[in-house]
Specification:
The protein is α+β, with helices and mostly antiparallel strands. It contains one helix and five strands; from the N terminus they run βββββα.
Length: 78
């Protein structure tokens, strides 16, 4: 499971241990984007970024991408 930290800007960073795995960004126009390709290469493993209808939905996308990468890498979260 990822640990989420909210930034002063209202954006969120996802952490696994000490590594930043992804982020959720609330844009100035109110749209929400997510990215899970900061820590590991996601190509051919999972969707690495996109837009979502809510912060919670975007967090779920980051967590899903991370879980898929862990499975493909034969790793398990602590």
């Amino acid at each position: 499971m990822l640990r989420w930290g909210e930034q002063r800007s209202g954006n969120w960073f996802a952490y696994s241990g000490e590594l930043t795995i992804g982020m959720v960004v609330v844009r100035d126009n109110g749209t929400i984007a997510w990215d899970a390709a900061n820590a590991v290469h996601m190509k051919w493993t999972a969707e690495a970024n996109g837009e979502a209808a809510s912060v919670d939905a975007a967090k779920k996308q980051v967590e899903t991408a991370w879980a898929k990468w862990l499975t493909r890498a034969a790793l398990q979260p602590k």
